[in-house]
Design brief:
Helix content is 0%, strand content 50%. The radius of gyration is 13 Å and the shape is globular. The protein is mainly β. A hairpin with a 4-residue loop joins β7 and β8. The strands form 2 sheets. Strands 2, 4, 5, 6, 9, 10 and 11 form a 7-stranded mixed sheet that branches. It starts with a strand and ends with a strand.
């Protein structure tokens, strides 16, 4: 599975961005999808995930109420709508695909396929 992330950019605090991640080379609908982010000098952290059937979504506490993960299996794309952005959201954002079990759905070990990052910078 190949993943191509896009949609990052520079935005002021309080603004919005929508990240997209287009998948190819696999059966997209059979994979759970996730977004992780990594700030300079920090570890890669979980942001949001959506199960293969889109029946369940998961968010890091700091993203709840501000970010929404969704997927469109018809176009093999997962999205991350980010509203009310804060400077602390600044990071490289990565999409990932995999078949994690419940205990690993918020952990990078649960995902075997990764896209390149897309930079999100939120200015204060």
């Amino acid at each position: 599975v190949q993943l191509q992330a896009s949609g990052g950019g520079l935005v002021q605090a309080g603004g919005s961005l929508r990240l997209s991640c287009a998948a190819s080379g696999g059966t997209f609908s059979s994979y759970s999808m996730a977004w992780f982010r990594q700030a300079p000098g920090k570890e890669r952290d979980f942001v949001a995930a959506i199960r293969w059937g889109a029946s369940s979504t998961y968010y890091v506490d700091s993203a709840k109420g501000r970010f929404t993960i969704s997927r469109d299996n018809a176009v093999s794309t997962v999205y991350l709508q980010m509203n009310s952005l804060k400077p602390e959201d600044t990071a490289e954002y990565y999409c990932a695909a995999g078949r994690p079990i419940i205990s690993t759905i918020t952990r990078s070990i649960g995902y075997g396929y990764w896209g390149q990052g897309t930079q999100v910078t939120v200015s204060s």
